[in-house]
Design brief:
By secondary structure, the protein is α+β, with helices and mostly antiparallel strands. It has a single domain (7-245), classed as Creatinase/methionine aminopeptidase superfamily (Creatine Amidinohydrolase, Alpha-Beta Complex), CATH 3.90.230. Helix content is 28%, strand content 25%. A 6-stranded antiparallel sheet has the order 8-7-9-14-15-16. Strands 1, 2, 4 and 5 form a 4-stranded antiparallel sheet that branches. A 3-stranded antiparallel sheet has the order 3-12-11, with no helix packed on it. Strand 15 (243-244) and strand 16 form a beta hairpin. Helix 1 (7-30) packs antiparallel against helix 2. The relative contact order is 0.19.
């Protein structure tokens, strides 16, 4: 069942997502050659507690860390440990918090040092596909209008969208209805209405869309070993323009 949020609940979620983006910005600024992923995780945990929130992912279905860090061919749910970053690595940072009973969730991908041309294009197209999807977040549109906009933009640039992992509603639970695939035809799924809050998160692969899961039960990586990128915003449906929570206003 889709849970509609009141204006006050969306205000709280905006604060939750502001904390998420503050932490993500700090993590991105810390990314450099030689930085150990576990240190980034500890930074995220400490910053979150200092902001009066709790990390959303730690302990969620047994996930052992505060932030998901996925490198190069890892798509999502990478577990930070003793790995040290190297020049040219693509680093996806996926992070969430719980604040006053509500969840915030966002993700971004960055590069360690200068990016090669293909990596820069992959990041740009993934980020742009997220914004293409958000442009469809208007009352009366359907969920698959978001999905189609993402897929169309990604595939027009020669990349692929992951099928096995999707976006989702968000609120008092991290994952709520509806699911939001990053692929599909227009005109299907629930109609969008004010009060819905959606975590839209394109996961885009350099090669094919197929993925596998490591023996740790969490780390998802591309089947062909090529790189992946991931961007995510939590977005509120309003009576007019979509509002990206935590970043200060309409999309």
């Amino acid at each position: 069942m889709i849970q509609l949020k009141s204006a006050e609940e969306i205000r709280i979620m905006d604060k939750a997502n502001a904390i998420v983006h503050k932490v993500l910005d700090a993590l991105e600024a810390a990314v450099a050659p030689g930085v150990v992923l576990g240190d980034l995780d500890r930074m995220a945990h400490s910053l979150t507690l200092s902001a009066g929130a709790k990390p959303a992912f730690k302990g969620y279905h047994g996930y052992p860390a505060s932030v998901c860090i996925s490198v190069n061919d890892e798509v999502v749910h990478g577990i930070p440990g003793s790995r040290a970053l190297k020049q040219g690595d693509l680093v996806s940072l996926d992070f969430g918090v719980v604040y006053e009973g509500f969840y915030g969730d966002a993700a971004k991908t960055c590069v360690v040092g200068p990016a090669d041309e293909k990596a820069r294009l992959l990041l740009d197209v993934t980020r742009e596909s997220l914004m293409k999807g958000i442009q469809q977040v208007r009352p009366g549109n359907r969920v698959s209008d978001i999905s189609h906009a993402v897929q169309e933009w990604v595939e027009s640039h020669g990349f692929s969208v992951v099928r096995d992992y999707v976006g989702h509603g968000i609120g008092r639970a991290l994952h709520e209805d509806p699911q939001i695939p990053n692929f599909g035809e227009r005109g299907h799924g629930p109609r969008l209405q004010p009060g819905m809050v959606l975590a839209i998160e394109p996961m885009v692969n350099e090669g094919g869309f197929e993925v596998t899961v490591d023996d740790d039960g969490w780390t998802v990586r591309t089947k062909d070993g090529l790189r992946s990128a991931h961007f995510e915003y939590s977005v509120a449906v309003t009576s007019s323009e979509p509002v990206i929570l935590g970043v200060g206003g309409a999309a």
